[in-house]
Design goal:
By secondary structure, the protein is of the alpha/beta class. The protein has one domain: TIM Barrel, CATH 3.20.20. It has 11 helices and 8 strands. Strand 2, helix 3 and strand 3 form a beta-alpha-beta unit. Helix 1 runs parallel beside helix 3, helix 1 runs parallel beside helix 11 and helix 8 runs parallel beside helix 9. The protein is globular and about 45 Å long. The two termini are about 20 Å apart. The structure holds phosphoenolpyruvate (PEP). The site of phosphoenolpyruvate has 13 residues, from strand 8.
Length: about 250
Amino acid sequence: MKKLIAGNWKMNGNLGQAEELVSSIAAKIQEQPSIIDSYEFLICPPFLYMPAIKDICAKHGIVFGAQDCSVHEAGAYTGEISAQMIADCGGTYVILGHSERRQYHGETSQLVAQKATAAHGAGLVAVICVGETESDRDAGKENEIVGAQLQASLPEGANAENTVIAYEPVWAIGTGKTASSDDVANMHSFICAQLKEQLADSKNLRILYGGSMKPENAHALLSTPHVDGGLIGGASLKAEQFIGIAVAAEEG
Ligand code: PEP
């Protein structure tokens, strides 16, 4: 199974920079074409830039998707983007329940599950994010919190083909702090065990780690048991770092 290296560009850049970044990512892959044998690269730009990266992604075996979608299929929902619209633009993945959506938009795990159902209905793979805050971890509640998020955020019918889990400790996102390999190993094996109990078939369901991943820590994080890839924010905005994460993980 290939590891998934997923870039979340968030609300950064402009059209020209989006085109330039995807071209640089493609060029980096071309320098080392064998990297594609072990890694799948996913880019999630702002919605509006998806059409601008589509052709170059297709040409270089990069997949792309969105950072959110509506729970609704269509209708009077001003400002919303449906899962089908993402699919129409060539997207195949959608990130759901990112901690920034949970924090700034009040998204609950129940809403995330509804969005995941909408994503699955449109044929998209849902990357469902879970993770504890620093105070949850200080209180020793990380398994309880992540377990409850998983329980409520995964819709019926979630499986390895249509769902990826991203474990992102909130305190590690954009802070330069990462969880230790031991903490990541413990959490990923907890998630793995819970998915086994919760889903009819959780075999091969990928579990990503996210939170300040960069080339310098990629090998340690990506060689941790049950870590099937990374969800990358800041370092996904520089081609050298984004592809460098896979290269560093490979080379050790
Ligand atoms: C993220 O926002 O999902 C993320 C992991 O960000 P960063 O890599 O910048 O910590």
